[in-house]
Amino acid sequence: MKETPLSTCEKNFIIQAIKQNQRLDGRKNDEFRSIKINYGAEWGSVLVALGETKVLAQVSSELGEPKATRPNEGIFHINVELGPMAAPHFEAGRNCELTVQLNRTLERTFKDSKCLDLESLCITAEERVWILRVDLNVLNHEGNLIDCCSIATLCALMHFRRPEVSIVEDDVIIHTAAEKEPQPMVMHHYPVCVSYCTFDEGAIAVADPTVIEERTSESQMIFGINSFRKLCCLNLGGSSLTSSALLLQCSKRAAKHAKYVVELVKKTLETDIAARESRTNVGFTECLKQNAITSLAEDRLVLKLRHFTFEDGDTNIIVEGKHEETELENEQMDSDDTNADQTTATDKWSVEEKNDCSMDTEEVTSIQNDCTNKNETVGKTPSKAQNKIPRGSSQSDSEEEEKITL
Length: 406
Known about the structure:
The protein has helices spanning 8-19, 97-111, 145-159, 211-216, 244-277, 284-289, 327-380, 384-387, 393-405; strands at 35-39, 45-50, 53-64, 75-81, 122-124, 128-140, 161-162, 165-168, 171-174, 183-184, 191-199, 204-207, 219-226, 231-238, 308-312, 315-319. The protein has nine helices and 16 strands.
């Protein structure tokens, strides 16, 4: 199934709104969406929601042989899957351009930056090492997948615990959680991806873009930054070339946002560990009760207009949305409206009567003036019919009257 194309009206509307520092979801150009993190019952299972974009991550481990070039290091893989659940135009089992881009950027951000200590995954050199695999399933695609996937990968790695291992006469024994406590991952730093989209020939940068904004944008900037404000990955794609000043501004904002995200992840991990120690219910069942897993479960509307103006003549009426109104206020408003309608109706009738009276007086005065003018002309200039009256006209009139009476 092909992706539905955007019309020129939609593109022009989004571009004009961004030029006015407004967006469809009520944010400004430099604002990010809210992040919600929920951990599963098993170690390494995380559900991350960035607005309406939702990704499920799961970390798995197994024993295997190391690479010949690096016999003292473990192996780390990242896999992103995009299916019809994320969007209808994605096909299951096929890698599109977006999946390849996501896999490469995540590998450069986490694997090439060496945030994970791979030597701690070695059991015996050149023989047995741990092989970690992070599987990312996109549940809903509503824009900015790279940021959501990077946060999910970081949360899953920090939440994962590998089982303890002991070696007895060249045999590797894997202990269960009841025998020995599992060990957490050793991480040197915590990288996060932050993306921007540019508009107006690279003059305007929009943070945390949605799907429509990504499709109408000219170029895209992806910063892989850790909590120490060090750049791990930089990806620039698109047609328009961005200026150096805009890149520096976006990188500073991305560094601040990355630090905030890492602190948020650490707080959520502390709360999850405290809940596990207190033996409370932990997992995605609580998320179902809170309606946090299902799609389109945001608190606010997707479309939000801050100020909507009606232009009627010379007046501008600004209508602002009100979220909660009491019934008493509604009744008072209704009574006031009825009274106002009655007063306006009586005013209209009175004005119309006054106008009718004025029109009648004007018509009477005009008729009187016309009559006076005619009388004056008749008195001054007698008609020829009156001067030339025949003598037999009086007799004929009397005879006609006698006939009528008979």
